[in-house]
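Recap from last week: sequence in, structure out.
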Amino acid sequence: IFYDLETTGLNPYHSKIIEIAAFLYSVEQKKIIDKFSSLVNPGIPIPEKITKITKIDDEMVNNESDLVTILKEFINFSRLNEECNIYFVAHNGDGFDKLFLRQHLFNNQYKINANINHLDTMRFAQKLLPNVKRYSLNSLCIHYEIEQTNSHRADVDTSMMASVYHKLCEDLTSK
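Predicted structure tokens:
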């Protein structure tokens, strides 16, 4: 599962998720086989600074479902309710996305049967490309000449991150 979250802030204990996107990738088929994308009504006003970054405003989320409803859909999409092995891949996931998932998804409120492993494309890039100066998603897209449009929207960032991941894997294979 390649995934990205947009939130009302940086603190997983106080900030709320406002958008989730995920791509289900089949290793056997070597392609994305399904996509999930949803805005989330956070139940609080979205700070102006977050709207400037994400272009997500209160009007866009007011009629959307709450996080509990969206997470149930996300669990079904990502097959977390099945007994299987799943890799969750995010950019800066160790420092951000995984913390939000841990706080909101892995809190025993939901039945999670999958064995989950987390991969962070930022950490992967830091180990594989020690001479790159910056490891932001945008910087890695520039490094790999991946087109960037509308960043800081979960579905676009997920797509760019999946492309970066594949380029990193190609580099690793060639080394």
